[in-house]
Amino acid sequence: MLFRAHLLSPHGSMVLRDIPDSAMVVDAAGRIAAVGTFPDVAAAHPGEPLLDLRPHWILPGLVDLHSHLPQYEAVAMDGEELLPWLKAHIFPAEIRFEDPQWAALAARIYFRDQLALGTTTTVVYGSVHLEATHRAFQEAETAGIRTIMGKVMMDQHSPDRLREDTDASLAQSEELCAAWHGRDGGRLQYAFTPRFAPTCSMALLRGAGRLAEKHSAFVQTHLSENLDELRWVHELFPAAKDYTDVYAGAGLLGPRTLLGHCIHLSPSERGVIRAAGAAIVHCPRSNAFLKSGIMPLRRWLDEGLTVGLGTDVGAGPSLDLWAEMAMACTASKLRWADQHTQGRRLDGLGLPEADRARIHQALGLEPDPPIAPAQAFALATLGGARALGMGDRIGSLEPGKEADFIVVDPARVDPAPDRGPEPAEQMLGRLLYRSRPAMVRASYVRGRLCHSQDA
Ligand SMILES: [Zn+2]
What we know:
By secondary structure, the chain is an alpha/beta fold. The protein has helices at residues 38-44, 82-95, 100-116, 130-143, 166-180, 183-186, 202-214, 227-236, 243-249, 267-276, 284-289, 297-302, 321-348, 353-362, 373-387, 424-433; strands spanning 2-11, 14-26, 32-37, 50-60, 62-68, 119-125, 146-150, 152-153, 188-194, 218-223, 257-261, 279-282, 306-309, 405-408, 440-445, 448-452.
């Protein structure tokens, strides 16, 4: 099939490749066979059936690297910080997944909503329950969305009805991995999912690391989100140098590891994460909602850390990765403004230059340039794919890759839809800052139509 539309995609090291009248050929196996200008590609593929999508645009599908399926019903519970919020709102919602029927229905709604928002790859935390996680995988298999998922593991400091026996947690996780990891040509994969250090014994953490390595599966967990959490980890694991060292000591850090949040990392922790090849998942709406902090995205990227984006439902309010991109930009601007303002105030104190420079540096007041929409879009597509080690398969629209793409109608978010041609970055800015489900006309995974507004 030859798709004709305006194409926008990261491309190799380019943040954005813009082809106003493009053609993309997808073969019967769901791979991208050709991308280029319409006249060139059409001439090289005579007789290929044509689907003319103009005036819509085609973009790579979005990659959501972090969210919690059983928390979807508990979004927008405002008030607390991380630890009391988990207790008051999240654990009760996760207990409901004792009921596999509810888990199946919740998963159907969840994956449907993700595809409708243009997310074609999702990395998901389930609940602790074996059967609920089987049912969620079945729903992902049917929905067609590319899914990396695992049941949460926790054997301490959690409610009685969610606290697991260590060996049972490991055995059930391995059973799920055996059933689902690599299914449907690798569309479904397994992530061993120790929730976070406070709810996991060292035996459980080590066991999870061992199993992930044995099965070449993913690992996902949370790291350095909230200052009370950091203090608690320090009390629970006094032998560890820092929070990251708990996971490093358990053998959990590697190139298939996704670390949610990573707001308050020290320089040495960043060095360990970078050397391990693990990826950081930035979830700025969640970080704002729980008052956790602003992750220094620009700085982490400049240091060579691998970063992608996640909605972190239910601390994030929705599965809308466009809104997450917008918030990544907004948070970086707030950080810039704060650094800039504090720097000006410091200058106004009239301190000797040596003192001024020392305080300036200690507080990190050199303003980090904000993130632009095109960069946020690259993080939510190719950046997410690279974080998964799948940058050669998905994340951009290039020949040889699997055809995970979405059809978007920019007129749905444009107050002046009759305007003429304009720079793609401006259109992209509107998609991010003014996102709404109606703008995603269709979502394809490996060339298969998984969501359509015309259906
Ligand atoms: Zn989370």
